[in-house]
């Protein structure tokens, strides 16, 4: 199964942000996306998830034009850049809304979350992020799109999340964009660099230096 996003042209007023960007996501694979600040990574994710309407766009699922990826049941879930769950909701309630088995989740991650009865706002900033990433990975969708999953997370937990991303990629396609580029580089089966309004498949550090993402 694959999702193809192609020919994305996006402008804000006279500012051209994307000029023909594309992305291909495959089930069973991890796709990494890097790019300088302001390159358009989050915009591309917002286009993919129907939050921004560009001048031009093609989205296909297995070669079939699809206007709205969320209209296909169980196709995708998406973690935006900022935490997005209600502060007064208990973790167990959030898990059940995503169809995740709460006891199974709490047992697996018992060293991270003490109790499913905790409210979301009782978690620290980094623990909130950790919970959201693991929640979306655990949910039963074909694809998970993660915008900055490593932000606010301490190194030991980044390694844990990376392992979970790798483990869950056996049953879903995962898109990861984050400025902790070493982790993205290490995880990605295919790596895109958003550059000059387009997206290019790059191979490794040398390409990232060449395009000015790394020094
Ligand atoms: N609603 C908006 N109105 C006008 N300009 C916008 C809007 N949203 C994004 N932009 C501009 O589009 C460009 C791409 O923004 P985007 O947030 O996609 O960058 P990014 O690659 O995710 O950057 P970062 O790594 O800093 O998060 C930026 O120049 C930004 O200022």
Short structural summary:
Helix content is 29%, strand content 29%. The protein is globular and about 50 Å long. The protein has 215 residues and is of the alpha/beta class.
Structural notes for this entry:
The longest helix is centred in the middle third of the chain and has 14 residues. The relative contact order is 0.20. A hairpin with a 2-residue loop joins strand 1 and strand 2. Helices cover 29% and strands 29% of the residues. Strands 6-7-8-3-9-10 form a 6-stranded mixed sheet, with helices on both faces. It has a 4-stranded antiparallel sheet with strand order 2-1-4-5, covered by helices on one side. The chain has a single domain, classed as P-loop containing nucleotide triphosphate hydrolases (Rossmann fold, 3-Layer(aba) Sandwich). The protein is globular. The chain is built from 7 helices and 10 strands. It is an alpha/beta fold and 215 residues long. The structure holds adenosine-5'-triphosphate. The site of adenosine-5'-triphosphate has 10 residues, from helix 1. Adenosine-5'-triphosphate binds next to helix 1. It comes from Neolewinella aurantiaca. GO terms for molecular function: ATP binding; ATP hydrolysis activity. Pfam families: ABC_tran (PF00005). Belongs to the ABC transporter superfamily.
């Amino acid at each position: 199964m694959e999702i193809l996003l192609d020919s994305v042209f996006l402008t804000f007023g006279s500012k051209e942000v994307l000029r023909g960007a594309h992305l291909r996501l495959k089930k069973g694979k991890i796709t990494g996306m890097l790019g300088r600040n302001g390159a358009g990574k989050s915009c591309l994710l917002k286009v993919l998830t129907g939050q921004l309407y560009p001048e031009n766009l093609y989205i296909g699922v297995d070669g079939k034009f699809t206007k709205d990826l969320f209209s296909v049941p169980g196709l995708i879930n998406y973690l935006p850049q900022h935490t997005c769950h209600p502060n007064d909701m208990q973790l167990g309630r959030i898990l059940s809304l995503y169809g995740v088995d709460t006891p199974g989740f709490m047992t697996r991650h018992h060293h991270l979350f003490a109790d499913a009865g905790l409210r979301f706002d009782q978690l620290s900033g980094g623990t909130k992020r950790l919970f959201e990433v693991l929640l979306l990975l655990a949910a039963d969708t074909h694809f998970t799109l993660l915008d900055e999953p490593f932000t606010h997370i301490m190194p030991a937990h980044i390694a844990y999340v990376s392992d979970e991303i790798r483990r869950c990629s056996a049953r879903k396609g995962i898109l990861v964009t984050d400025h902790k580029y070493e982790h993205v580089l290490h995880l990605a089966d295919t790596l895109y660099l958003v550059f000059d309004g387009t997206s290019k498949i790059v191979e490794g550090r040398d390409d990232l230096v060449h395009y000015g993402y790394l020094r």
